[in-house]
What does this fold into?
Amino acid sequence: MAPENPQRVRERVQHHTDVSLWFALLFLLGFGLVMIYSASSYTAFADYGDQMYYLKRQAISAGVGLIAMLIVAHIPYRFFAKFYVIGIFVSAVLIILVLSPLGVSSHGARRWIKIANGFNLQPAEVAKVAVILFMAVMIARLGSKVKQWQAIIVLFAPPVVLAGMIYAITDNLSSAIIVGAIACLMFFVARPDYKIFILITLLVVVLAAGLVTYVKNSDGSSGGGFRMARIRVWLDPESDPDDKGFQTLQALYAIGSGGVKGKGLGQSMQKLSFLPESQNDMIFSIICEELGLLGAASIMLMFTILIWRMIIIGNNAPDLFGGMLVTGVVTHIAVQAVLNIAVVTNTVPNTGISLPFISYGGSSVIFLLIEMGMVLSVARGIEYRG
It folds into this structure.
């Protein structure tokens, strides 16, 4: 029997297109724009005379991010491996530039760089992408050597340095935690040595429990800075209802008043200057107030679908580099979403962290979509023959 024509075989190759992932992503983006308008229209009109001020800015950022995502998605993902070292250095330089005249302060924090009129870049978002790329390249190159201590030091040095710079220079603990979590979980996937990770987890839990016990038993006279104060407020928000516990209490009031079905879209009371910056880190509480438990559950379901489909892509990636690249993006989105919901519900102390694709923030949505572009590029590399 004559062999089949190679041209016909090539014609049967199909690239992977994940409809479920696209649906979940576009749903979260669209829903985020709706909720940003709902949560910010009152304060936007009071401060800028335009109810759509925040919506317009976020829509522009989302549009730029979608274009960037489509461009990145059509570039073979192996091309990005060339920039794994440059990304680390660029991130470090951008973080240092926060201290320069280009640095921008907002709400008592100096975490941004002025790029253009009306657009500020948050270097921490660049650092997250850089760490994902660096870890993916190094793990793929090290292979089985990833278990050696020398390799571990080389692997973790850049992420640790960047996380330290983010915390020390921009005073952004949440982003520093996310950078560290990305590195640790990518390493865990590459080296599933459960014993050592269980020991590390137990150590962290014991240290955290010890710190919480110390703060709980102290009277606060010893000081400890605002982070200690946040732990005290986390333990008892009503201990400082007019200052550090104000935002947490207002968020909990919003969640509680929403009930199962919610008050209805646009009917939030807490967004009327009761809950500070409701379109940012605390937007999940407005979702709960207006759309209730059902609305909150729907958002968590969309995140679950998005993460699940990315895991499928990572498991079927053509090579280890592609799989680790997807793993980094999954880790970033999952950790950030879980931490945001945990903060809003007062499950963990307030760290000031945004909800991916939904909270207001131009830098965040643009770089998240660039990360999604890399995932889609890996997905395009998956071929089906037959």
Summary: The radius of gyration is 22 Å. The beta strands are 14-15, 103-106, 109-116, 119-121, 383-384. Residues 8 and 261 are 55 Å apart (CA to CA). The chain has one domain: 16-384.
